[in-house]
Design goal:
Layout: H1 2-13, E1 38-45, H2 48-57, E2 69-73, E3 85-92, H3 95-99, E4 111-114
Antiparallel strand pairs: 1-3, 1-4, 2-3
């Protein structure tokens, strides 16, 4: 229930649509895995299925701030510790765009990290 309420609140705060680039708007980068950019990390673990379930509990691939949720393998990202799967929202063009995504209510220990 808590996740559902937080996701609904997030949906109201985040602009919809594809990439936007003016002041106060988000600039998601929509490219394949292993790409450079800033990510909101919502959780990591050793099992991909656990992270896929977490992604789905948080609203699925279309949730988030425009870039969408995905499960990544950290082996594909230079600044991530290898050997894990992480639920992330991103990539975003810059740190401030990633930090503007309101995940803290649903995932209090969420943090922003550059992927390369």
């Amino acid at each position: 229930m808590r996740y559902t309420q937080a996701i609904m609140a997030l949906a109201m705060l985040v602009p919809t649509g594809a990439a936007q680039s003016h002041a106060g708007e988000l600039t998601p980068i929509l490219v394949s895995g292993g790409s450079c950019g800033w990510y909101v990390v919502l959780g990591c673990g050793k099992r991909a299925t656990d992270q896929q379930n977490k992604r789905d509990d948080l609203g699925g691939p279309n949730a988030g701030g425009g870039a969408g949720l995905r499960v990544i393998t950290t082996n594909d990202y230079a600044n991530f510790r290898p050997g894990y799967y992480c639920v992330v929202d991103g990539p975003y063009a810059n740190k401030s765009d990633a930090q503007s995504i309101a995940w803290a209510e649903a995932v209090p220990d969420a943090y922003v990290k550059k992927g390369c």
